[in-house]
Design goal:
This protein has about 210 residues and is of the alpha/beta class. It contains 8 helices and 5 strands, in the order E-H-E-H-H-E-H-H-E-H-H-E-H.
Length: about 210
């Protein structure tokens, strides 16, 4: 059986990656591909429970290392319970966030060190990395403005961080793009959602057909 493809969607808050993922999944399915969509932290029962702890606005006292370890724990369970079985069944897995989020948010923005967080996560994922990562590139202030204008979206603990934190997250992603140029491809997320979905779809199809 042909192994599937593991494709992750990354970006700062308000980048539109979640909406893009839904649109891309729909297009792939209409083209006859078998697609699984999921998210981090979450995707399965245990990891969703951890997600609730991580994103609860009342947990302001959470230590940065605790935060990093919880993300890694949720990632491990999600990987072995949902992602790997889907890939082994030959499906395309589209995942909203993966290891790069931990590297940018906890490693760089929380000042824990990208290499240190990478090592923690290697224990969790055992060298398992995405085939392709799409980074949805938007200036932090523009992403946050989108969140504020979307009254249907519930704010989480990361949404309410200061702009300076989100700017550091953005800087962290730029470092990761330089470190993993063959895996991470950027998409201009300042455009309309229709255009963003089209660009993401084209990049995925190109990768699958390589």
């Amino acid at each position: 059986m042909v192994r599937g493809y593991f494709i992750t969607f990354e970006g700062g808050e308000g980048a539109g990656k979640t909406s893009a993922l839904t649109g891309v999944a729909d297009r792939l399915e209409r083209q006859g591909y078998s697609v699984v969509t999921t998210r981090e932290p979450g995707g399965i029962k245990i990891s969703e429970q951890i997600r609730n702890i991580l994103l609860d606005q009342s947990n302001t006292e959470m230590d940065a290392r605790t935060e990093a370890l919880l993300y890694a724990a949720a990632r491990r369970q999600h990987l072995v319970e949902k992602v790997k079985p889907a890939l082994e069944a030959g499906k395309i897995v589209l995942c909203d966030r993966f290891i790069d989020s931990s590297l940018a948010y906890q490693g760089y923005a929380r000042n824990l060190g990208i290499d240190q967080i990478y090592q923690i996560n290697q224990f969790a994922i055992d060298q398992f990395m995405p085939d392709l990562t799409l980074f949805f590139d938007i200036e932090p202030q523009n992403g946050l403005a989108r969140i504020r204008s979307n009254q249907a979206r519930e704010l989480n603990r990361l949404d309410v961080e200061a702009l300076s934190f989100h700017q550091k997250v953005y800087e962290g992603y730029q470092i990761l793009r330089q470190r993993f140029p063959s895996r991470i491809e950027a998409i201009d997320a300042e455009q309309s959602l229709v255009n963003v979905i089209q660009l993401a779809y084209e990049k995925i199809i190109l990768h699958i057909n390589e």
